[in-house]
Amino acid sequence: MTDDRLDPRLLEILACPEDKGPLLYFADEAKLYNPRLQRVYEVRDGIPVMLIDEAVAVDDAEHQRLTAKAEADGVEPTFAET
After folding, report:
1. Which of 3, 22, 27, 29 has the greatest number of CB atoms lying within 10 Å of its CB?
2. Strand pairing partners for 26?
3. How far apart are CA 31 and CA 48, in angstroms?
4. Is residue 18 part of a domain?
5. Are the beta carbons of 38 and 63 closer than 8 angstroms?
6. CB 17 within 8 A of CB 51
């Protein structure tokens, strides 16, 4: 089994391609999440797919699940907003 986790240096600069804001990275689900736009960007074979057209919109229930998971697991945004 390969380790598909993203490089921490890459995570420090990853931003949503649409609103340029930080993302939440869920390594165990291979996804990056933008809670502001409620969109998921998949990580395939260790490579983040940062294409707006391939982002998946999530409903309110999934948004709540992901934000609660981020809080419970201590998931930090990819960078601090200024």
Report:
1. 22
2. 31
3. 8
4. yes
5. yes
6. yes
pLDDT value of position 63: 98
| Strand residue runs (E) in 9-73 | 24-26, 31-34, 39-44, 47-48, 56-57
Contact criterion met (CB below 8 Å) for 32 and 25: yes
Range(s) of the domain holding residue 21: 8-73
Tell me the residue type at 80: A
pLDDT digits (tens, 9 = 90+) for 6-34: 888 888 999 999 999 999 999 999 999 99
How many independent structural domains does the chain possess?
Answer: 1
Residue 82 lies in a domain: no
Residue 61: CATH number of its domain: 2.20.25.10
Tokens at 71, concatenated: 């809080």
Cβ-in-10-Å burial (0-12, 13-18, 19+) of 51 comes to: exposed
Tell me if 78 is assigned to some domain. Answer: no
- Identify whether the C-beta of residue 63 lies closer than 8 Å to the C-beta of residue 45: no
Amino acid at 30: A
